[in-house]
Amino acid sequence: MAMVLFNGMKDVLVPIDGAGRIVLPKEVRVDLGIKSGDLLAVSVHGSLVTLAPRKAAAGFVRKGKALVFATHQGVTLDQDTVNAVLEEGREAGCSRAMGKPRPAKRD
Questions:
Q1: Same domain (yes/no): 49, 15
Q2: pLDDT tens string for the chain (107 positions)?
Q3: Which residue in 48, 2, 47, 46 sits closest to 28, CA to CA?
């Protein structure tokens, strides 16, 4: 059995299957923003195994119906980062808009 720590809330036991896989409880995945295909860094210290999510980059992610800015743990959000992400979003929006004709205005 493997033990998973819920952000200090409580310990939960999860089984390891024959291929060595574990399933992270949904609450853990949601709280940490872990989605299918995300990479987890594995660290071993004595008999302790730690899994830590590794996000590729900071950016906007959907949380329910809202679009929020997310960054890695320990990363400080500064004005340069905000400006760069906003500019990327604007460029992406402009590129999409340039490919589609604008609808005619109705009077």
A1: yes
A2: 444 454 555 788 899 999 999 999 988 888 777 888 888 999 999 999 998 887 656 667 777 788 877 766 666 677 887 888 788 888 877 766 676 655 555 65
A3: 2
Tokens at 99, concatenated: 């490919």
Cα(39)–Cα(51) distance, integer angstroms: 10
Contact 60, 70 (CB under 8 A): yes
State the CATH number of the domain containing residue 49: 2.10.260.10
- Residue 63 burial by Cβ neighbours in a 10 Å radius (0-12, 13-18, 19+): exposed
One domain, residues 46 and 72: no
Same domain, 6 and 39: yes
Q: Model pTM greater than 0.85?
A: no
The conformation of residue 53, written as its DSSP 8-state character, comes to E
Range of the domain at 63: 59-99
